[in-house]
């Protein structure tokens, strides 16, 4: 796999940092999750930790900090998810760690970045969206702004863009041998993710308030419609050729529903027409029409769709058996492999002994560290 041989330390957290580590792990990196003592299990995102190793350290103990620094010396990447200044207070900021390992890629994944008036402020996806300006564009016209779960800032503008930054830094390191700091702000990241929206904001696509534009639910030929069996169909017939096929499928004439006039009338007619039949009926109607009309599938339905099955879009989770997406993009020579379909997530401290031995600690030294509560071992069925 493309990142085989790359060693990553990921300080345990929720959502964006674990997702960033998951991407790297799925493409071959060895990812060691650094848990902060046994109590950190309350704050660990195990949904995204399959196939990772867990080393549990006490960052309040000087020997725990020393162990962490020794791990840094043999690592390629660090992912840390804290607000600005937290790592510096522990003497674990970039200046300190890059002196230990000049090739280290120090990835900082935070809500607001390392500088500025918000850098010390707490926040979640919805807050990063709101400060970026993106949230103001999302949601219906008859209600307040509505975030699409926590997908955009946490995962898109956060974990995914941070992973891109790490890969770019790895490429630079391949030429120079030197690491660098990757400063990934979820507020800046989600703004960058929305570049097309910002750049097209004053075009014909976005002349109306939120929820009343061509692509945000304001046009009757680009939205979802409920069917007779309370399921949904998605309509994206923007171009004239697709709109013509849409009307054929619905049994309508263009003089009855012209595309770019009478939006309220078109919306009413389409709502009534789609409610006349079940989702299965409309799937059959549009299967051979190039109308950009599709069923809104549940996760389970998507898992069984023949197209997705043929492309192995989903696999079964190792521990739950539920469908999980396979890694993207597909590489012809070194494709990724979902760790979640092959390995369970680690228990906190499950690999502390193994990993510390791999960097030169003896079993006696490790047990002594554990007795002093500088590290935490989780070794079920062990005689140690």
List keywords for this structure.
384 residues, alpha/beta, 7-stranded mixed sheet, 3-stranded antiparallel sheet, 15 helices, 12 strands, CoA-Trfase_III_dom_1_sf, Alpha-methylacyl-CoA racemase, CoA-transferase_III, CoA-Trfase_III_dom3_sf
Topology:
Elements (H helix, E strand, L loop, with lengths): L6 E5 L4 H11 L3 E6 L17 E5 L4 H12 L3 E4 L5 H4 L4 H7 L4 E6 L14 H8 L18 H26 L3 E6 H8 L1 H5 L22 E5 L5 E5 L3 H11 L12 H12 L4 H8 L6 E3 L3 H6 L1 H5 L3 E3 L6 E3 L26 H7 L4 H9 L3 E2 L8
Parallel strand pairs: 1-2, 1-4, 2-3, 4-5, 5-6
Antiparallel strand pairs: 3-12, 7-8, 8-9, 10-11
Structural features, described:
The protein has 15 helices and 12 strands. The protein is elongated, with a radius of gyration of 25 Å. By secondary structure, it is α/β, with parallel strands linked by helices. The longest helix is centred in the middle third of the chain and has 26 residues, at 151-176. The relative contact order is 0.14. The protein has a 7-stranded mixed sheet with strand order 6-5-4-1-2-3-12, with helices on both faces. The protein has a 3-stranded antiparallel sheet with strand order 7-8-9, with helices on one face. It has a two-stranded antiparallel sheet with strand order 10-11. The chain has helices at residues 16-26, 62-73, 86-89, 94-100, 125-132, 151-176, 186-193, 195-199, 240-250, 263-274, 279-286, 299-304, 306-310, 352-358, 363-371; strands spanning 7-11, 30-35, 53-57, 77-80, 105-110, 180-185, 222-226, 232-236, 293-295, 314-316, 323-325, 375-376.
């Amino acid at each position: 796999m493309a990142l085989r041989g790359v060693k990553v330390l990921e300080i345990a957290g929720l959502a964006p940092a674990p997702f960033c580590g998951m991407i790297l792990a799925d493409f071959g990196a060895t990812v060691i999750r650094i848990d902060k003592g046994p109590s950190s299990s309350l704050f660990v995102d195990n949904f995204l930790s399959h196939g990772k190793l867990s080393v549990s350290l006490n960052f309040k103990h000087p020997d725990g900090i020393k162990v962490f620094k020794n791990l840094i010396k043999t690592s390629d990447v660090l992912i840390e998810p804290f607000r600005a200044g937290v790592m510096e207070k522990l003497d674990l900021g970039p200046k300190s760690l890059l002196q230990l390992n000049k090739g280290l890629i120090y990835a900082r994944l935070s809500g607001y970045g390392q500088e500025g008036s918000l850098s010390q402020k707490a926040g979640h996806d919805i807050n990063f969206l709101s400060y970026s300006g993106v949230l103001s564009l999302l949601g219906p016209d008859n209600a307040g702004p509505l975030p699409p779960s926590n997908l955009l800032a946490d995962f898109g503008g956060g974990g995914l863009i941070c992973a891109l930054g790490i890969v770019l830094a790895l490429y630079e390191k391949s030429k120079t041998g030197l690491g660098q700091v990757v400063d990934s702000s979820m507020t800046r990241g989600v703004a960058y993710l929305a570049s097309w929206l910002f750049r097209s904001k004053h075009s014909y696509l976005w002349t109306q308030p939120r929820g009343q534009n061509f692509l945000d639910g304001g046009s009757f030929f680009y939205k979802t419609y409920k069917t007779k069996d309370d399921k949904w169909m998605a309509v994206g017939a923007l171009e004239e050729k697709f709109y013509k096929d849409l009307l054929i499928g619905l049994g309508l004439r263009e003089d009855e529903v012209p595309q770019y006039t009478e939006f309220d009338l078109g919306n009413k007619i389409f709502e009534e027409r789609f409610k006349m039949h079940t989702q299965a009926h409309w799937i059959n109607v549009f299967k051979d029409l190039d109308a950009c009309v599709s069923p809104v599938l549940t996760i389970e339905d998507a898992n069984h769709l023949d197209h997705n099955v043929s492309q192995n879009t989903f696999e079964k989770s190792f521990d739950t058996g539920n469908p999980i997406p396979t890694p993207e993009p597909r590489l012809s020579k070194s494709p990724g492999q979902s760790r979640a379909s092959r390995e369970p997530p680690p228990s906190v401290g499950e690999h502390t002994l193994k990993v510390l031995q791999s960097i030169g600690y003896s079993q006696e030294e490790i047990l002594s560290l554990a007795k002093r509560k500088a590290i935490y071992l989780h070794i079920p069925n062990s005689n140690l």
